[in-house]
Amino acid sequence: MEPYIQSLGVIPIFRPSFDSAEVKAVERVLFSGWVGLGPETDTFEKEFADYIGVKYAVGLNSCTAALHLALQVLDIGRGEVITTPMTFVATNHAILHMNAVPVFCDIDEYTLNLDVEKIEKLITPVTRAIMIMHYGGHACDMEPVLHLAAKHGLKVIEDCAHSCGGEYNGRKLGSIGDIGCFSFHAVKNLAAGDGGMITTNSKEVFERLKQLRWMGISKDTWKREGKQKEYDWRYDLNELGYKYHMNDITAAIGRCQLSKLNMHNKRRREIRDLYTQELHTLSEIKTPQEMPYAGSSCYSYVIQLSRRDKLNEYLRERGISSGVHYYPNHLYPLYEQYYRKLDVAEDVWKNVLTLPLFPDLSDEDVLSITQHIKEFCKYEYVCGAPDDLPVSV
Ligand SMILES: Cc1ncc(COP(=O)(O)O)c(C=O)c1O
Q1: pLDDT tens track for 188-214
Q2: 122 vs 118: CA distance, rounded Å
Q3: Pocket residue to mutate for ligand 1, from 61, 69, 88, 253, most atoms within 8 A of Cβ
Q4: What is the pLDDT of residues 58-111, one digit of tens each?
Q5: What is the domain partition of the chain in residue ranges?
Q6: Measuring CA to CA, how many Å separate 307 from each of 277, 319, 376?
Q7: 90 Cβ inside 6 Å of ligand 1
Q8: How many helices, marked H, and strands, marked E, lie in the chain?
Q9: Which atom of ligand 1 is closest in space to residue 187's alpha carbon?
Q10: Which DSSP state fits 331?
């Protein structure tokens, strides 16, 4: 594989991995005459449910839609939802869209997941659910979460946008809570440009979701079309739904990506291990650790260092992209009224830096990135200095 730095001149943080299989699958669906919600989505849902180890899966157009529908179908109402600040805002926007109340819980400084020991004291009589986001693909510690949920009668939603294929004590993430929400956004482990999926073991939830995702309509158009293609126009409307369903083009790409997911995640793990091998001895840098209960999907590789912004700049000038995931959501003006002091999140986010990680990244690319980081650690780098040179310390 040609190193990215040579072929593109720049190494992106994330990049999807496609080949002719996706092209052929899309071609097949395009020429089939049915590209909307249809049989390809149906098959993808069944394959995905099998892979995750749940009874049902419902194809959607994004994880944002999945999170919104999850809260609706679990009847959260205007109650409180305990959630993480260390996530993409889609997780918490879903709570606001439902007019429910996000109750931010502090995070664990190592995994950057919810600190499960801090959840119980946030539970009140109006708490309805715990929203889990498996950060970077590393499982949140789910046993204590399930225990609290059972004790207080709460629902558990897993935001698995980062964790497709990730595991907790040998169980696939998205099969542990009441509902799992997946993203097939352009750079996710299973990338289909966009798209999402809900997983659940509840038949009732599944049947309601099938209607909610398409306007609340009780039958799918392609099913109404029937074998003889006579068009049965009748359908029922029981509940106000949304235009959130998946289409068969997305499903065709998704099925190809699902068949390669284990292979891609294996390569992601190799890259993670190579990074850690090269970086863990640098005293300035904290490398991510995997907990014994977790089998990470290795969506992202996030290091921690106090000179985060300087390293970000240093790498950028050398054609290597890096990023910050995330600015704690409770610090955004939009979430001001839900602010509570979260010592760890407010401290740790200043140090996190996401390095490039995607299946097609070569070992040579990783070694070139880590070599630059090693050089950086030898110097006190002055960003924007007139001669733009590192200053030795
Ligand atoms: C943690 C998390 N949740 C939800 C989403 C939303 O996913 P989608 O883009 O499929 O709506 C993302 C997307 O980046 C995410 O990172």
Answers
A1: 999 999 999 999 999 999 999 999 999
A2: 7
A3: 88
A4: 999 999 999 999 999 999 999 999 999 999 999 999 999 999 999 999 999 999
A5: 20-258, 261-392
A6: 21, 19, 10
A7: yes
A8: 12, 14
A9: 14
A10: G
Q: Which residues contact 327 (CB under 8 A, 6 or more apart)?
A: 349
Q: Is the CB of 162 under 6 A from ligand 1?
A: yes
Return the amino acid letter for 138: H
CATH T-level assignment (fold) for domain 20-258: Aspartate Aminotransferase; domain 2 (3.40.640)
Which residues have C-beta within 8 Å of that of residue 385, sequence separation ≥ 6? Answer: 391
CA distance 235 to 232: 8
Residue found under tokens 């089998």: 295
C-alpha torsion angle, residues 301, 66, 181, 45 (rounded to 10)? -120
Mean pLDDT of all residues belonging to the chain: 94
149 in Cβ contact with 127 (< 8 Å): no
Q: How far apart are CA 29 and CA 125, in angstroms?
A: 50
The catalytic residue positions are 188
Q: What is the DSSP letter of 292?
A: T
**Which atom of ligand 1 is the closest one to the Cα of 194?**
10
Long-range contacts at 277-283 (CB < 8 A, ≥ 24 apart)? 278/366, 278/367, 278/370, 278/374, 279/303, 279/370, 279/373, 282/373, 282/374, 282/377
Q: Which residue has the tokens 């070694």?
A: 367
Exposed e or buried b for every residue in 231-255, given b needs 16+ CB within 10 A? eeeebeeeeebbebbbbbbbbbbbb
In this prediction the pTM is 0.94
Instruction: Give me 24's structure tokens.
Output: 């052929």
CA distance 179 to 204: 12
In 3D space, the residue among 189, 193, 221 whose CA is nearest the CA of residue 26 turns out to be 193
- Same fold? 20-258, 261-392: no
Token representation of residue 219: 């039958």
Distances in whole angstroms, Cα of residue 308 to Cα of each of 17, 273, 288, 355, 366: 28, 21, 15, 11, 19
The hierarchical CATH code for the domain 261-392 is 3.90.1150.10
The CB of 161 under 6 Å from ligand 1? The reply is yes
136: Cβ contacts below 8 Å, ≥ 6 apart: 112, 162, 288, 296, 298, 299, 300, 301, 302, 325
Give the Å distances, CA to CA, from 29 to 21, 24, 133, 312: 13, 9, 33, 42
